[in-house]
Design brief:
- It is a single chain.
- β1 and β2 form a beta hairpin.
- It is globular and about 45 Å long.
- The protein is an alpha+beta fold and 275 residues long.
- It has an eight-stranded antiparallel sheet with strand order 3-4-6-5-7-2-1-8.
- The longest helix has 15 residues.
- Helices cover 22% and strands 17% of the residues.
- The chain has a single domain, classed as Cyclophilin.
- It has six helices and eight strands.
Length: 275
């Protein structure tokens, strides 16, 4: 039970201090154990209702629908852990001194999230950045130009909404956007989950705390591991299909009291290609 309580505290920290939006719109990156109050969040994060309907253009000329996406498209036969198929778009996250992490994308389930990451990657946005926050048996987080957890923005210059689908679970190896406690607050920061297993006892504990899962979701977490306590709170836009050994190695690096690696873990490049 002590472990369960710890997991919930980590969930609150990730949700409240993720730092994925622009600096002035985020409560993130303090690295402190305390959790922001509702008042704190309101002071530092824009209310979705206050965002204008004016569409921001990305460098490629695309615009973002500021009304957001509540529920993503359902895909027949979707398999989150399936290997990429010939012609699929993939990305290789190269980490200096460690190796490559390869991911596939869920462009029909999270079209905005996928476009944002791929465009950033092609423009070299992530090159030279770090995994600034690492928690063993949980996740590795990067994508902040400031390296503090308080920086970064989307390709549209505005935070974008979560894209939530009951078909995706935040299992081991999931590629997700970090966010603050408000929606929209997705920007450039992302995390990859590392937790290897989930037990029946843990699932029962989450459910007692008020979290609910479909039977399929429950089965997937028990089979694949991951972070059930994050379900429905974060956009899952891809999945690691090769290089989880690299993620596991990174999860064990020495960190300070703010979960920042004592020696920088550098992303040399994120390369987009066809499988």
């Amino acid at each position: 039970m002590k472990k369960l309580v710890t997991m919930f505290m980590v969930f609150i920290m990730l949700f409240s201090f993720a730092g994925c939006g622009p600096k002035e719109n985020s409560t993130a990156g303090s690295g402190k154990e305390e959790v922001a109050t509702d008042d704190d969040s309101m002071q530092t994060t824009e209310n979705p209702a206050d965002i204008t309907t004016e569409q921001k253009k990305a460098s490629d000329g695309s615009t973002m629908d500021m009304t957001g996406v509540v529920t993503a498209e359902r895909i027949e036969g979707f398999d989150q852990t399936a290997a990429p198929q010939a012609g699929d778009t993939i990305a290789t996250i190269s980490v200096e001194g460690y190796g490559d992490i390869k991911v596939r994308f869920f462009d029909k389930i999270a079209p905005y999230g996928v476009k944002n990451f791929i465009t950033h990657a092609k423009e070299g946005y992530y090159d030279g950045l770090t995994f600034h926050r690492i928690i063993k048996d949980f996740m590795i987080q990067g994508g902040d130009p400031e390296g503090t957890g308080m920086g970064g923005e989307s390709i549209w210059g505005e935070p974008f909404y979560n894209e939530i689908s009951e078909q995706t679970c935040i299992i081991r190896g999931s590629l997700c956007y970090a966010n603050s406690s408000m929606d929209p607050s997705n920007g450039s920061q992302f995390f990859i989950t590392q937790k290897e297993s989930v037990t029946e006892e843990e699932m029962a504990g989450y459910e007692k705390q008020g979290l609910s899962f479909t039977e399929e979701q429950r089965k997937v977490y028990l089979e694949k591991g991951g972070c059930p306590w994050l379900q429905n709170g974060f956009t899952v836009f891809g999945q690691v299909y090769e290089g989880m050994d690299i993620v596991d190695t990174l999860s064990k690096v020495e960190t300070d009291e703010n979960d920042m690696p004592k020696q920088p873990v550098k992303i040399t490049s994120v390369t987009v290609s066809q499988y």
